[in-house]
Amino acid sequence: MHELALPPRLRKLDRIDLTVPSPMHAPRGSGIRGRQRTLELTAIELFDGLRVASPAQAFVDGCDYLAFEDLVALGDSVVWERAPRATRAALVEAIEGHRGRRAHRRLVAAASAVRPRSASRPETITRLQLEALGAPEPWCNVPVVLDAEEAVAPDAAFWQARLIIEVEGDQHRVDRAQWLTDLERYNRAQRSDIEVHRVVATTPAEARRQLAPIVDRLRSRWDASRKPPPIAPFFQGPSAFGSEPWLFSA
């Protein structure tokens, strides 16, 4: 309902999760997984007349049923800078409200990996697998100007290696406008002597298999003296977040 990033398998489930506030009893019935929970009023929103979990609370609830990478992807979609569903403060408050409950440490670890510039679940998986393979944190979707042309914003860029990674999905395959945009971006990178790699990141294992040789290539091309291209003047925010958690720290 909030259009958050979730793994495709969840769309195939024939049930809904229905949470009721204490002291009500968790509902039972066909197609329902009932739960009872003590909830703050800030955890609940109205959506077309229905009381639903807020986006921040949806992230907290995700620690019950999502793998780590998918939990981070859910958090990324909650704070995605182009269309944030919750403020940073609201997400921190929801996480703190879960303190002392099951899987809180796992939730904090996922929150520490959340970033506001991954535009999709595959992009999040790619970023996390790059980190696991020892790559430095890339510039994700940061618009830069190449050779005085119009700004481009690669999914993941390593400018010291003049190497970028584009994460492909179904939209790139079936959307003609997206396809043409991708082709133009690829050609402009080639004209600027930038090495482009395209990956499909449906699962962490699949992403890791594709990214391992790219990280080797990254290391071989790395030159710390290289300067990144100029950031587009309309961009606001840091280009990369480094080792400090953007959202939350244990």
Question: Which tags fit this structure?
Answer:
36% helix, 250 residues, single chain, 3-stranded mixed beta sheet, 8 helices
In short:
This protein has 250 residues and is of the alpha/beta class.
Structure overview:
The radius of gyration is 20 Å and the shape is elongated. It has 250 residues and is an alpha/beta fold. 36% of the residues lie in helices and 16% in strands. The strands form four sheets. The protein has a three-stranded mixed β-sheet, with no helix packed on it. Strand 2 and strand 3 (32-37) form a beta hairpin. Helix 1 (55-61) runs antiparallel to helix 2, helix 2 (68-79) packs across helix 4 and helix 5 crosses helix 8.
N- and C-termini, Cα separation: 30 Å
How would you write the strand order of the largest sheet? 1-3-2
Specify the overall morphology: elongated
Radius of gyration: 20 Å
List the helices and strands and how they pair.
Elements lengths: L15 E6 L6 E2 L2 E6 L6 E4 L2 E4 L1 H7 L6 H12 L8 H10 L6 H9 L8 H12 L11 E2 L5 E2 L3 E3 L4 E6 L1 H5 L1 H16 L3 E6 L3 H18 L29
Parallel strand pairs: 1-3, 9-10
Antiparallel strand pairs: 2-3, 4-5, 6-7, 8-9
Helix pairs in contact: 1-2, 1-3, 2-4, 2-5, 5-8
